[in-house]
Structures are given as structure tokens and as C-alpha cells.
Design brief:
alpha+beta; FAD/NAD(P)-binding domain; 9-stranded mixed β-sheet; 6-stranded antiparallel beta barrel; 16% helix; elongated
Length: 313
Amino acid sequence: MSVAVIGTGSGAVVRALRAAGVVDVIVYELVSGGDPPDSAIGGPRRTSSTTRRRWRHREDQPVPRRLVEVSELVFDEDEDRWQIHLAGIEPEHARVVILTAEPAGVQLGVTGRESRTLDAAWSPTPVTFRGIATRGFPNLFFAYGTEPVVRAESSAHRVDLIATWVRALQRQSGTRIEVRASAQHEYHRRLGMTPDTARRPGRPRPHHFDITVAADRQPDHDYAGPAVLDLPGAEYPVLATLTGHTDPIDGRYHWYGRLDPAETTTLPEPTRASAFLVLPGREPAAAHLTERDPWGNLRVTGAGTPPFAPEPQ
């Protein structure tokens, strides 16, 4: 299993991975001055000169270096690996990517599952689990600490947590490791209520992450794509992620999901007014806008015939 470590200060991460029995580690080490401190990973794409070094088990010296420019990271959902786009040559690949640099150090365009960018997922602030992983970006870890309360703790502890989970992925012969939505949500709930508690991540637990191979996974939605939110007097183009189930008590089909703004659309506030959701080639479905989530998107629910063609139960 290959692991790419990108950024400055990679030595501690490499040592922790080696101690955990992870053999194949590639280091893309930053050698340029970086960008201004107010920039953030996942923002506008910029290139950074780096040095690529491959570390092998029981080798004291890396192979000779060669300069490359890492410009973008894209998660390949079919292969469960990251594409590392380099200037002027074919992309390279790694099962796991660990970013070690502060936001000022490396500027990358990062695209995870369902073509969602890290910039969008972190707007207006980073959203992570314990500062080391974000839902929707499998096999990607952050060693530098993404939030002030996380950066205040020991970096060695974060590195040990990451090495533990990478080792777990390798030992279980998995191809994808992703933080669970419930774990990330609960972490941020506690972060807002009791910051002092959040400074101590504690030991990793099996229920914090899902480790899977492609055959294990079921789609976590029935539809993901363009739609139109129809409200009295206005229509809003949106990107809908929807799923649902048949309730065994009332016998009705209950569907629900998330509406993201499409392009430059500004989503309306949740309202009790009659709303309809229209998918391409489908009839309008009555919908209810329940609330705005922490990232500014709308949560939507409905009962009865869904706007999408549901999978057989």
C-alpha cells in the first residue's frame, strides 16, 4: 500500500509510518518559499516546487531526488486512490495521502468524492474530525492540525493517530478509509460546547472510521446531481444528494437529503411555503425545507413518491 506524504517536516510522519510497518512511502517535500499565511489548502490552485523521495523499509538513505511540481490532488473513486497531478508529466498515484505542511506551505486543489472540493467543504472554516480527516475525502489525512484548538495539542499525537489508522487500513486489507459522518458531527458539537475536551483527541476507536473495499460499500444515496428547487415566485438551480426508505409503520416512502447551491446560486432560507423539487426528466415532488446545515446547504425531506427513481428495497 503506497502512502504519499506531501509538505514540509515529513520526517516525523515517515518515522511513525515505518514504526507502524508501512513500507512504501513517497515524500513530496516542499523546497520553495510557499504562499502568504492567509491562504488555505483547497483554495485556488497554485503549484509548489517539491522534491520527490521514495523511502523503503530498512533503507538509511533515500534514492536521489528529482524536482517536480504538485498542482492538484483528485480522488479516484473507482480505484480508491489519489491522483497526484504533476506539472509536465503523467499523474502519479498513492492509496493514502498525508498533508504535513501548514496552510501557508502547500497550495493544492483537492477534490474528493462526488467531485466536491476541499475548498467548498471547508467554507467558511475547516470541518474535520479531530483535525486529521474530513468526511468526503477518503484516504486523506492532515498532520498539521486544521483548527486552532487542534494545533494547540501535540503534533506528535496527531501523527501517531494518523499512523494508527493507516496501519489499520493496511492490516485489514482495505482500500478506503473514511471518517464517519456521525463521528465528525459529534466532534464538532463537542468542540463548540467544551473546547478544552476537544484538545485531547484520546485513543482512536473502531467506530470513528469506516475501512472498506469496493465490494463492501453500498451507495449512500439514490441520486446525486442537478435539480431545481421550485418555491413560490422563484426557482433555484441546485445540486441534490438524496436517498430514502419505506417506513415499516406507515408504509410510505420517506426521502431526504441535501441541496447544495449550483454555481453562483444563493439558496433561500428554510420556509414553510410549498416547495417542489424537480429532477431532470422527472415529475415535481412536494418537499419540505427543514433547516440550513453548518455549511450553508439546505436539508430537504419529503414523503410519498420521491423525485428520483428509488432503488428496490
